[in-house]
Amino acid sequence: MSDDFIIESIDLDNGERLDIIDKSRMIAKDTCLVMLIFRIKIEINKKLIEKIPTITENSIREKLGGSVIYEAKHERNFIHDNKKDQVLKDVRDSFLNTNMKYLSHPDFSHKYVIKKYNEKKKNS
């Protein structure tokens, strides 16, 4: 994650921050792979844990540590280099238009933590 190129950060209404990361790369002389990653780092703190009364703080921290990462990757392949910027914009706009209400919802963070907790619990 250290070499990520964050092209935009959006503060969400629920207090989280959505980072938009460009991972595009050339795959031929004039053709590229356009890839955007949409990432939210959800810190596991007292305020969030208070919204999850059915699971103890120790259990959550034992399974997940101090934070959880939400990540969505969207890519388009074989894009001509001169169309890359427009495709990046279209992918960004499409994702934001369809996901902002969900990601900004006041219940998003703790429900996502519960989801990840249950996944870890099931797989351990």
Structural write-up:
With 124 residues, this protein is an alpha+beta fold. The protein has one domain. The chain has 4 helices and 5 strands; from the N terminus they run E-E-E-E-H-H-E-H-H. Strands 1, 2, 3, 4 and 5 form a 5-stranded antiparallel beta sheet that branches. Strand 3 and strand 4 form a beta hairpin. The longest helix is centred in the C-terminal third of the chain and has 21 residues. It is elongated and about 55 Å long. The two termini are 25 Å apart. The mean pLDDT is 94.
Short description:
With 124 residues, the chain is an alpha+beta fold.
- Structural class of the helix and strand makeup? alpha+beta
Number of beta-strand segments: 5
User: In one word, what is the shape?
Assistant: elongated
The stretches of 5 or more residues where confidence is low (pLDDT under 50) are none
Which descriptors apply to this entry?
5-stranded antiparallel β-sheet; single chain; elongated; 124 residues; 40% helix; alpha+beta; 4 helices
